[in-house]
Amino acid sequence: MTVHTLDTGLFKLDGGAMFGVVPKSMWQKLVPADDNNMCTWALRCLLVEDGNRLTLVDTGIGSKQDEKFRGHFYLHGADTLENSLRQRGFTSADVTDVFLTHLHFDHVGGAVVRTPDNKLQLAFPSATYWSNQAHWDWATTPNPREKASFLQENIRPIQESGHLQFVDGGAPTGLPGFQEIVLVDGHTEKMMLPVLPYKGRTLAFVTDLIPSAAHVPLPYVMGYDMRPLVTMQEKERLLQRAAAENWVLVLEHDAQTECITVQNTDKGIRVAERFRLSEL
């Protein structure tokens, strides 16, 4: 098995929203903000080669939204999902599986594309798309607070295509290379964190549970989270396990750091090492 990170561009979100109740005087030392209080974040995906299966984990924002929408998030950078796939020697037709950690627009937007005649179709026409029933139901009948993150043009075409399958947490069946799927409910209902054995280590793609290295301390929780106290409990469980077993945590939104390990300190769990996945 070979695992790659794929960069699909950069975007900006309000620093206060990204760090919740943590004061700016503390978080801006870790992630500097611009004059509008916006911080730069990555849109990083994971690509897993395992035999004749090629699994893409999340898909970034994509490019089908209009300029007004894209302008809200200051999308920038030269990287795209298509170009990053090409750099690894693949095209969209080679992807056999698309694993969606959750259905917020910055994770699923690249899963569906708009054709020149304004139709929506799968970006990966040969792939099976994986979600879970509880999260799918949550996203397709969204609550008012989260509705703006669940854009139906990113979601409905997947089900209508007949390519959608559901997976449960725990030890997954049908997904190559995956050792475990950890389900968490703090950020959104039943978000999925894939865990994979790799080069004698354990990789965990921690998506929006720990979006960046700056979010490792327990109180550093996003204002976007539906259940922030649950996020703190879930982070603590996962980080304790990661520290005890020396896991490699792959970060989806950290613009500077791809991977970290963590350790227990007298101040709680903190980052131990920072590195690129290719350095393993």
TrEMBL record:
Q: What is this protein called?
A: MBL fold metallo-hydrolase
**Family statement:** Belongs to the metallo-beta-lactamase superfamily.
| CDD domains in UniProt | metallo-hydrolase-like_MBL-fold
Report keywords, A-Z: Hydrolase, Metal-binding, Zinc
Q: From what superkingdom does this record's organism come? A: Bacteria
Q: Name one Pfam family in it.
A: Lactamase_B
Which lineage do the record's taxonomy fields give for this organism?
A: Bacteria, Pseudomonadati, Bacteroidota, Cytophagia, Cytophagales
Q: Which residues form the Metallo-beta-lactamase domain?
A: 42-253
Read off the InterPro entries from this record.
MBL_superfamily_lactonases, Metallo-B-lactamas, RibonucZ/Hydroxyglut_hydro
